[in-house]
Amino acid sequence: MNRGITQKQYLELVPPTEEDARSSQMRILDALKEKGITASFTLPALQKLYPICDEADYNITVCLAWNGSIWQAVDLEAGDTAAEHYGYAADLGSTTVVVRLVNCSDGTVLAEESEYNRQTAYGTDILTRIFACKDKPEVLQDIRACTMETFTLLFEKLRQKTGIAPSDVLSMVVSGNTTMIHFLLGLDPFCVFSSPYAVRADRVGFLPAKEMGFPMKGCVYCVPGKSNYLGGDILSGMIATELYKKETISVFFDIGTNGELVVGNREFLLCGAGAAGPALEGGVVKTGMRAAEGAVDAVKIEDGKIQCHVIGEGKPKGICGSGIIDLLAELFLNGWINLFGTLQPERSEKIKEDPETGEWCVEYSEGLCFYQSDIAEFLRTKSAAYTMVEYMMRESGISMEEIDRFYAAGAFGKHVSKESAITIGMYPDMDRSRLICAGNTSLAGAEKILLDRTCIDDIDRILDEMVYIQFGQVAAFISMMKAAQAIPHTDLELFPSVQKKLEEKQKEK
């Protein structure tokens, strides 16, 4: 039984006769009904009835797309093309957009591509973009055009890799935070930022792809959100991890430009969100870049020398999020930065003063430097991330010992070193086996929905059960963040394993 949001049905129909002069349309609809499928026709599909039915001797494949309430015939193809059944799953991130091309007939991933979101031309952070288009509908349309341009570029890259054009694709599932969905739809996003935080739309569901400006034949499903700062990317994360189905208590933490957190199980879901910063994705680091070929994604310091691993094994071009976390952890453990992230020039000749700006930096690879201001920006980001977890655990009355799984999601989450993330105080110091680097769950959830529309029923249940906390309105949040800005924290007793590492380093000396 087909469970996805699209399907292709091959039909071998009897051509019309004087005894059976039913229309081509009704022949198809009746045949589909015999398969248990009630459907209607779109105009483009009606217009293809002739000459395809005649030329194919009524042996045709009907392309069907779910629109939220009924199957719609969106295209007809001659012969049996049921195996050529494609869909897109997309993670519309504020810094990076990722699209995955899926063979919906067997669930295999054919290709995946990522690109910086072209919206960043209007600001690296979301608030800058929101203010850029406030009371300026023309700017809002420009930002929407940047979003569509990013998708178009990704579709073309996927076509070049697989030979499958977007016009060959039936539908797409898009997962993104509330602001990103507003930008995608051309909706004014200022409500996301301003009281009373009543957004324009948070459950838009299925929309005809062509109406949105996409070349697909069916619909685009936008994963619903819960609130202004807790969007479809987190609901996708719930679908991907199935946290809401488990008996044991889990934590789901998606860290990117924003940080979103869910604590719970099948009986309760407590959630919250707040700004983290683009530093985790290399967005504001001077030599930062996304995790693509040429990015330093892992760092080690041995015998006073920095060793870097580069994606693609070629010459390094910059450093991505996982590389930054490794670099900071190694700098700290080797005493090249202190508790507050201040570079210690006397510890290495790799720490130098930039002749143009006078700013201290560490040269992690030839010609590539990580600056004091980069460190400060990253520590602000990681302190926001840690404080969200700390506050939520305090609010729920749940200790880390009660947590069965801690899912660390995010664009870099799949490749980040658990040890490095704990060393700098971004993740809690806990049993490593319970800490799951879940990767891009926003994308994984979108793919799951693409292939199984029953997940949409689960989303409705999740939305009803979620209790939301606005971190920005918590008085103690700022003071807790300041304490977490140190490496790993001003209270080192919260990180016993890091304490032990520091003691071992001292013994080595």
Molecular structure report:
33% of the residues lie in helices and 26% in strands. The chain has helices spanning 24-34, 43-47, 49-55, 126-132, 137-162, 178-185, 190-193, 209-212, 232-241, 321-333, 372-396, 418-423, 441-451, 455-465, 477-483, 496-508; strands at 6-12, 39-41, 59-66, 71-78, 86-92, 96-103, 108-116, 169-176, 205-208, 219-222, 250-255, 258-264, 269-275, 295-302, 305-310, 318-319, 351-353, 360-365, 368-371, 405-409, 435-439, 466-470. The mean pLDDT is 91.
Query: What structural class should be given to the helix and strand makeup?
Result: alpha/beta
Main β sheet profile: 6 strands, mixed
What is the general shape?
A: elongated
- Percent of sequence in beta strands: 25-35%
Oligomer description: single chain
Strand order of the largest sheet: 7-6-5-8-10-9
Number of strands: 22
Radius of gyration: 25 Å
* Separation, N- and C-terminal Cα atoms: 65 Å
Could you name the ranges where pLDDT drops below 50 across 5 or more consecutive residues? none
Mean pLDDT: 91
Task: Give the helix proportion (percent range).
Answer: 25-40%
**Number of DSSP helical runs:** 16
Write the layout of secondary structure elements.
Elements: E1 6-12, H1 24-34, E2 39-41, H2 43-47, H3 49-55, E3 59-66, E4 71-78, E5 86-92, E6 96-103, E7 108-116, H4 126-132, H5 137-162, E8 169-176, H6 178-185, H7 190-193, E9 205-208, H8 209-212, E10 219-222, H9 232-241, E11 250-255, E12 258-264, E13 269-275, E14 295-302, E15 305-310, E16 318-319, H10 321-333, E17 351-353, E18 360-365, E19 368-371, H11 372-396, E20 405-409, H12 418-423, E21 435-439, H13 441-451, H14 455-465, E22 466-470, H15 477-483, H16 496-508
Parallel strand pairs: 2-4, 5-8, 8-10, 11-20, 13-22, 14-16, 20-21
Antiparallel strand pairs: 1-3, 3-4, 5-6, 6-7, 9-10, 11-12, 12-13, 14-15, 17-18, 18-19
